[in-house]
Fold this sequence. Notes:
Blueprint (H helix, E strand, L loop, with lengths): L16 H25 L3 E8 L5 H8 L8 E5 L5 H4 L5 H4 L8 E5 L8 H4 L5 H22 L1 E9 L2 H13 L9 H7 L2 H14 L4 E5 L3 H17 L13
Amino acid sequence: MIQLNNISTKPPQNLDREKAEKQTKKWAKRIGQLQYLMQAEGKHSLLVIFQGMDGSGKDGAVKKVFNYCHHGGVRVHSFKKPTPEEFAHDFLWRVHKVCPEKGMIQIFNRSHYEDILIQRVHGWIDEVRVQKRMEAINAFEDLLQFDNNTLVLKFYLHISHDQQELELKERIDEPEKHWKHNDGDWKEREHWDKYMTCYEYVLNNSKVPWHIIPVDSRWYRDYCMSKIVVDALEALNMKFPELEKED
């Protein structure tokens, strides 16, 4: 049983930051090579899901981990409040249409899990619907994996309560970060304990396992995530297609 308050948000004390950052760069370059290979082979796709509290560094993770990927092979989608058209459909309708086709990497900055996180925290859905949606999500991710060869990697960006406060304050104090400031983030912070309870439900009830990434130190976030992505893509044993010979 995963309990987030028992998991550190900080890097190990014995890990050398300079060496880790050098290794991260090597892994990021390798991810770029593997993305190119995936696009050329056209047999697999990768869906990367980022979830985490405001200030946990989802945007930064995208930049650092996928920095060397070709822009034509990677897409990023940020899920906002559903539009009236999206509200008129089932909650996965808007998600399915932005899932990756074979050869592509799709990154979700927030995701379908918002529909059992923020909605549950604020009591907009009842517990029966939460359970049904969790079952639907598990079935949906199973469909992506086994019907379309989509590798699904899910990352929970684990930030401490104190570090989140520092990150949100930076958006007020530093002019280059003013555009990120949102008063609503501070209001959501008031529900921290409820969010942790809802996240633990998601982490413990997902069939596709989550990777819990400590993010109080962003260099360690990038280090952990890069290794996981490299290892997962390497395990696909992808190969460049051979030149087709004419008859």
